[in-house]
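Quiz preparation item.
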């Protein structure tokens, strides 16, 4: 066979091999694109074994719950930075480090404060709680008005007196009741003070008592903010006191005097953001960043519940941290065209302080941040359930970003998405309680991935052995693939016109 014949045969063979692609161009292109994407991204670097190992390290008792502004938060932050360095991420904090330090300001009730009702001397943080750390000095007669119905109040002159009443509100069940409880106490107290009361004393009913035992540790700590923020102001206010249900019998006794002197103190201490990056590969797009967001702090060491005083925060938010670390590994294995920026925000539990600070003092130009993908509590509840915060109006600020996340869920993650918790009328207001919020307010496309609340939320029972690490791994892959898409698009995801939050 001569050379000319061989060349002709090669041409025919090549044509035959190409025939399926010519006959079925769309199917072939689609399959080739998916196969190429899987071959070129770093998804294989996200492994459940790594996630489980990191989770038990970060949420174990060694870091004592990582309370924002404490040495435990700083120790945990140093551990995270060491892991990022070992994984091959570059520092992107201040001064060539992984860290961005900032101050938080705390205002609390001092030990010199005094609360006496009749013959009962009470201690804030033990057998009574004052809802707000505000200066007060009240010495007034106490009147008990039952459940504080309009009929009961009409029988009593409350002007110039301290008013005691039993909590009786019936609100939403389970987790949402807590917000209803605090909201009702604050609102009703303001109404009574406006009507002339000098102080308000709430006595728990059976349902409120559960939350008195479980949730009052936050009242012990006081208020937090960034220096100069609204919560740093020291002001005078008629005190609102919360008592246990056991006080009901003696609080009813007539002719008792209410004496409350509240002194407050305010001081600063450090918290920290951890910031790392994986530079992009495109000469132009590498100066833009896809930001993967989470927070490393939790509640620390508090009053013991069933003998356990370490509030580990395995789901809130060690689950988000270890997923974000895994995403960092994936980008190190295969960088995107745009750079990946990873931020672990400090003091989130104190009021989104780390993310608020970073938005005001970004370590990269703010306009270079293309999108924020936030991981917040992603390891509990039904194995196939999850939610996106910022998916629906008025919380959606980027339809492009939401559609990217939905496309990955449809093709890869396959979670059944809960739409209720992102609604503006949901009693938990969940959209407003995680680190994507300051970015969205600043005009950056932002969403959060979450598996929502559960009965162990902010209790010592939020332990690593209760986390579904397979689910965390699935969500880490979902976040990563969404970010990978955004990092490699020729154009940025856009902010929706007219975006405006309801509050």
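Solution:
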């Amino acid at each position: 066979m001569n050379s000319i014949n061989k060349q002709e045969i090669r041409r025919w063979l090549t044509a035959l091999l190409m025939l399926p692609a010519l006959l079925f161009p769309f199917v072939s292109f689609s399959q080739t694109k998916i196969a190429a994407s899987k071959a070129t991204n770093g998804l294989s670097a996200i492994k459940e074994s790594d996630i489980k190992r990191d989770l038990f390290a970060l949420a174990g008792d060694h870091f004592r719950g990582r309370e924002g502004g404490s040495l435990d938060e700083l120790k945990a932050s140093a551990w995270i930075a060491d892991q990022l360095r070992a994984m091959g991420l570059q520092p992107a904090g201040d001064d060539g480090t992984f860290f961005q330090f900032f101050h938080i300001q705390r205002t609390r009730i001092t030990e010199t404060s005094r609360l006496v009702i009749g013959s009962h001397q009470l201690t804030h943080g033990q057998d009574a709680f004052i809802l707000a750390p505000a200066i007060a000095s009240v010495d007034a007669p106490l009147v008990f008005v039952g459940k504080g119905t309009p009929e009961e109040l009409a029988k009593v002159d409350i002007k110039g007196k301290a008013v005691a009443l039993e909590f009786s509100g019936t609100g939403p069940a389970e987790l949402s009741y807590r917000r209803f409880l605090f909201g009702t106490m604050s609102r009703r107290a303001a109404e009574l003070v406006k009507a002339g009361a000098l102080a308000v004393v709430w006595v728990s009913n059976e349902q409120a008592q559960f939350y008195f035992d479980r949730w009052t540790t936050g009242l012990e700590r006081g208020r937090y903010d960034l220096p100069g923020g609204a919560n740093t102001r020291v002001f005078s206010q008629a005190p609102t006191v919360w008592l246990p249900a056991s006080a009901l019998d003696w609080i009813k006794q007539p002719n008792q005097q209410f004496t409350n002197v509240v002194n407050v103190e305010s001081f600063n201490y450090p918290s920290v953001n951890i910031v790392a990056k994986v530079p992009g590969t495109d000469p132009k797009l590498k100066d833009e960043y896809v930001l993967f967001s989470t927070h490393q702090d939790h509640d620390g060491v508090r009053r013991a519940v069933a003998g356990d005083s370490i509030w580990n925060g395995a789901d809130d938010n060690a689950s988000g941290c270890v997923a974000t670390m895994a995403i960092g590994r994936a980008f190190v294995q295969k960088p995107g065209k745009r750079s990946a920026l990873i931020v672990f925000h400090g003091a989130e539990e104190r009021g989104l302080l780390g993310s608020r600070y970073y938005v005001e003092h970004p370590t990269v130009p703010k306009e270079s941040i293309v999108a924020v993908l936030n991981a917040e509590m992603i390891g509990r509840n039904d194995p196939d359930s999850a939610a996106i915060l910022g998916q629906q109006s008025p919380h959606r600020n980027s339809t492009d970003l939401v559609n990217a996340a939905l496309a990955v869920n449809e093709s890869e993650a396959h979670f059944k998405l809960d739409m209720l918790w992102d609604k503006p009328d949901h009693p938990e207001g969940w959209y407003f309680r995680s680190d994507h919020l300051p970015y969205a307010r600043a005009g950056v496309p932002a969403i959060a991935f979450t598996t929502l609340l559960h009965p162990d939320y902010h209790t010592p029972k939020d332990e690593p052995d209760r986390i579904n690490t397979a689910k965390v791994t699935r969500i880490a892959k979902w976040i990563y693939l969404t970010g990978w898409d955004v990092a490699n698009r020729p154009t940025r995801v856009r902010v929706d016109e007219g975006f405006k939050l309801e509050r």
